[in-house]
Amino acid sequence: MVAAVILALGILFAPDIPSLDGAGAAWTSFLPWTAVPIVLLGAAAVIRRSWWAGSAVIIAAMVWSITFVPQLMPTRNAASADILVATQNIGAANPDPAVAIRGLLGTGAGLVAAQEITSAADGAISQLDAAYADHVRVSTVGLWSQWSMDEPEPLDLSLSWARAFRTVVHHPDGDIAVYAVHLPSVRPGYTDVRDRAIDELAARVAADPAARVLVLGDLNTAGTDPALTPLTDLMTDSRQKAAGGFGFTWPAQFPLTRPDHVLAKGVTPVSDQVLAGGGSDHRMVLVGLRVG
Question: Which of 37, 203, 239, 240 is the most interior residue, by most CB within 10 Å?
């Protein structure tokens, strides 16, 4: 019974759980998987014929359902997309990054963002360069566009080197400020740099004069992590908007969480798909956006 109550409270108060040197962040990033222990506790309560334990499990199940079932129900938005946006961490350890690049090309997206671009991927990346008239790259992060773009502004976001940038995409329906981002990685017991990077990125988005803003990339945390709240309070998460499932992207072989995001302000996400990883440890995200 106690375990079920703790689970219910952990779900209910997840937005208020601090990072706790990574322990709290791990809990909130994998929060939807609390369904598994709830089911196991329910089975144990039935076997033991414990009315009190069963009641606690029912309460925990209700809290989980209220929190997550709406996200599992697809929205009924028939609007067609004005832009398709693809983003993927193609993986520094990917043995054949060309497979991931071909996957990105195959989406037909008007905007393509990639992270963890290493020298081993340079040959494959040239295929994207050839397919898109405009492309910019800062360190290991790149953006390819069907429309012209301004010169990128590199952003270090609490790192000692730039692993993100801002540019402006000149779409026919109006300019869009795009932040292509790979936030600092999280290590057990250490999330401070990632958390500071989120706060800095959120401050930049809040101060951005553009009416339309996108943040694309690997943010190294899930939308259920309170650390991401400074950004999600300002922007719409494409997966939360489209619903229809959790859209997990990592690890690609058996996804458990979603660190890969398309966040939008001034444009409306109308679809969100998770596609194959192409050898990367992250699956690809393909999002449809309405500009008008």
Answer: 239
Same-domain check for residues 277 and 191:
yes
Residue 21 has pLDDT above 90, yes or no: no
Q: If you write DSSP's letter for every residue of 76-127 in order, what string do you get?
A: ---PPPSEEEEEEE--TT-S-HHHHHHHHHHTT-SEEEEE---GGGHHHHHH
The continuous run of DSSP H or E covering 54 comes out as helix 51-72
By C-alpha distance, which of 210, 193, 249, 256 is closest to 19? 193
Task: Tell whether 30 and 134 lie within a shared domain.
Answer: no
* Per-residue confidence band for 79, with pLDDT thresholds at 50, 70 and 90: low
Q: Which residues of 134-173 are buried (b: 16+ CB within 10 A; e: fewer)?
A: bbbbbbbbbbbbbbebeebeebebbbeebbbbbbbbebee
The CA angle 124-127-129, to the nearest 5 degrees, is 115
Can you tell me the distance from the alpha carbon of 248 to that of 57, in angstroms, rounded to the nearest whole number?
A: 26
**Token pair in block for residue 213:** 């803003």
Give dist(CA 216, CA 88) in Å, integer.
9
Tell me the per-residue pLDDT of 216-263, one tens digit each, with 9 for 90 and over.
999 999 999 999 999 999 999 999 998 889 999 999 999 999 999 999
Find the domain containing 12 and state its range: 2-72
169 and 35 together in one domain: no
- How many C-beta neighbours within 10 Å does residue 203 have? 12
Task: Residue 245: give its domain's CATH number.
Answer: 3.60.10.10
Q: How many CA atoms lie within 13 A of 250 on its CB side?
A: 19
Arithmetic mean of pLDDT over the chain: 90
